[in-house]
Design a protein that fits this description.
It comes from Shewanella denitrificans (strain OS217 / ATCC BAA-1090 / DSM 15013). This is von Willebrand factor, type A. This protein has 16 helices and 20 strands. It starts with a helix and ends with a helix. The longest helix has 27 residues. Helix 4 crosses helix 6 and helix 11 crosses helix 16. Helix 15 links the parallel strand 19 and strand 20. With 647 residues, it is of the alpha/beta class.
Length: 647
């Protein structure tokens, strides 16, 4: 009975303090593609992505009912940093659905304008970056004024939004008056107050109505009410906590055999920290464990692994947590849910060739190449067993070769020729059987005619940890990449094009792994097939270094037509600063360098979100997205033919 009454009480109390208009709710996913195009068109940073914001706390003044309900402590606030613009997962602030949608577009335009202001300030020599908003109060006013002066169409939109926001804030403050100030002032109207909190709130309302009218926010003891029309500073980065080295044997784990369809996905990117849970004597509880009716950011208990299946609850728990605490004890049954927090898998090292190659890296903040910023280690599998082409691969290869033959690209054998590279026994026997022989027509040779394509192709395959993900019940991404390399190498051999195969992954800047599957001087053989068959998911994706080394190798080849074909499943990233914008900018610079060497870099990806960042990296016509990953082995040769059709 107590539980029933509690549910009724909670439902009633929540309804009393709720301010969202759920019938007019607009979800971020409904307008995400439009917002991305709009953000780019308004001058936003091309390297940024649009993502969902997580809730953040504001210490605002609340009504008594809100305090009882425990509501209005966390809000979905829009913010941006160097790698992305974060917008609320939904907006239900207004009763009009059109206004809620308009708010998404206003916030996107404002973020783009803040980007332009930051770039202009950098050009003027001011110390500022996108990651730090130096003056939240004035920066938003300045950007708002710039938008309203430059774009007449936004004036009416902003006027409507500002009018509704001011109306809602006025009603909120009137209801909030009893909780402001000293007891003797509680009967005063909020707008007649002279304390710092009231002055700050009135200042915000003034600048919403007239942007640029106040330069300084009055000091107050609490945060001002959330301003839905503005972009907030980024959430402060969490300390790194306990360092975690994925190459440390103590941190290795067996790979759980989960399929991608079994793992729930949380859209918000979570902050994370490693915690030191190496001590084995911290498991003592001095109270009953069943008294714990909630969870917090970290419960660092030393306890036995349970066989109970709590998958139904773990997603809700993870969504509610602001910070995910990661254990160094990598037990297999911990892999129950997918975050945007990848940890490297265990991989057996191949033979290292040499001491490593020092390569530069592009620092977009300094706008220059930093020499010797990373070390690339060339590797080769030295214990490979020769592998003949299986019947499955043979059938798939025959289908591709049939397409090549239809296009007239495969070598053709012409019989009964006056000269050639092989003897035509059938023609000789036919002539020998004739009672009357014509010595002037002795055409006893087979001439194999090949099309001189003069193409050199280097295929660079992403072998990062993310390729361990399943695309269906039977195949992982790495399996599809392996099949593609098997079939594609057979097709290129039949075409007669010179080609090389490499794979890469990385663990920070000092360990970029560059795997040789076949270089240009190696013949395509069973040993090459054996190396392809051995590829497994590695670590992370420091793409810029791999592209630079591939470009160097390809540029040394003779001939005119040189294609650098990159096969990947996502964005460049690594454990260190090579994440978000830094990784994108370095990769883009590496591609620019490849083009300056006369190469044709082209990306083939199975990432359905590739449209968000690939145009910035490779250009509008420099990439292809394969939506159905299982079709990659069949699609890849066709893409290659389109790239080299004129050669």
């Amino acid at each position: 009975m107590e539980e029933v009454v509690g549910k009724i009480w909670d439902k009633w109390l929540t309804s009393q303090v709720a301010t969202d208009h759920l019938d007019a709710k607009v979800h971020f996913s409904e307008v995400q593609s439009q917002l991305l195009v709009y953000y780019r068109a308004m001058g936003g940073d091309s390297a940024k992505s649009l993502e969902i914001a997580e809730k953040r706390e504001l210490n605002i003044s609340r009504t008594t009912m809100q305090k009882i309900a425990g509501s209005h402590k966390q809000f979905y606030l829009s913010w941006q940093d160097e790698r992305s613009l974060r917008l609320p997962p939904y907006i239900a602030l207004f009763a009009d659905k059109t206004l809620n949608q308009s708010l998404y577009f206003w916030l996107t335009a404002l973020a783009a304008q803040l980007d332009k202001q930051r770039r202009a300030d950098v050009g003027d020599g001011k110390e500022t970056t996108t990651a730090v908003m130096a003056d939240w109060f004035n920066d938003n006013q300045r950007a708002t004024c710039a938008l309203l002066s430059q774009y007449a169409g936004l004036r009416r939109l902003y006027s409507n939004l500002a009018h509704e926001v001011l109306r809602l804030r006025t009603a909120e403050f009137q209801a909030n008056t009893p909780s402001l100030g000293e007891p003797q002032k509680r009967n005063m109207s909020f707008f007649n107050r002279d304390d710092g909190q009231a002055q700050a709130e009135k200042a915000v309302m003034t600048v919403i109505k007239i942007p640029g009218s106040i330069n300084e926010l009055p000091r107050c003891s609490k945060d001002v009410q959330a301003v839905p029309l503005w972009i907030y500073p980024p959430i402060e980065n969490l300390g790194s906590g306990v360092n975690f080295d994925p190459l440390d044997d103590k941190n290795q784990q067996s790979k759980p055999k989960h399929k991608s369809g079994e793992l729930p996905k949380i859209e918000q990117r979570k902050k994370a920290q490693y915690v030191d849970d190496n001590r084995k004597t911290d498991g003592l509880l001095v109270f009953q464990a069943e008294a714990l009716m909630t969870w917090t950011e970290q419960i660092n208990l030393d306890r036995c692994q349970s066989d109970e299946d709590d998958d139904a609850d773990i997603t809700d728990i993870a969504e509610d947590l602001d910070i995910i605490s990661l254990s160094r004890h990598r037990k297999a049954n911990a892999a129950r849910i997918r975050f945007d927090l990848d940890l490297p898998a265990a991989a057996q090292d191949d033979l290292r060739l040499g001491e490593g190659i020092f390569l530069p890296e592009w620092d977009y903040k300094q706008q220059r190449l930093v020499e010797n910023a990373c070390v690339l280690q060339t590797m080769i599998s030295d214990e490979v067993e020769p592998l003949a082409l299986s019947s499955e691969y043979q059938k798939l290869s025959q289908d591709i070769l049939a397409l090549f033959a239809h296009l007239g690209l495969t070598p053709t054998r012409r019989k009964a020729q006056q000269s050639g590279d092989d003897i035509d026994l059938d023609a000789w026997l036919d002539n020998h059987a004739q009672p009357v022989k014509d010595s002037s027509k002795q055409a006893f040779y087979i001439d194999t005619q090949r099309q001189n394509r003069d193409v050199n192709c280097l295929i660079l395959a992403d072998l990062s940890l993310s390729t361990e993900a399943y695309i269906d019940d039977n195949q992982r991404v790495i399996d599809v990449i392996r099949d593609s390399l098997m079939v594609f190498s057979e097709a290129l051999t039949r075409l007669g094009d010179e080609f090389a195969l490499y794979g890469f992954s990385s663990v920070r800047s000092q360990h970029v792994r560059f795997h040789i599957l076949k270089n240009f001087d190696m013949p395509h053989s069973d040993h090459v097939r054996g190396r392809i068959a051995r590829i497994e998911p590695g670590y992370y994706t420091r793409m810029g270094a791999a592209i630079r080394q591939s470009s160097e190798l390809l540029s040394q080849r003779g001939g005119v037509n040189k294609v650098l074909l990159i096969i990947t499943d996502g964005k460049p990233n690594d454990l260190d600063k090579y994440e978000g914008r830094y990784g994108l900018e370095d990769t883009r610079q590496a591609i620019i360098e490849a083009k300056l060497l006369g190469l044709v870099p082209y990306c083939v990806t199975i990432d359905n979100k590739g449209h968000d960042y690939l145009p910035y990296l490779f250009g509008t016509n420099g990439f292809s997205i394969v939506s159905n990953a299982s079709e990659l082995p069949r699609v890849l040769p066709k893409i290659y033919l389109q790239l080299t059709a004129a050669h």
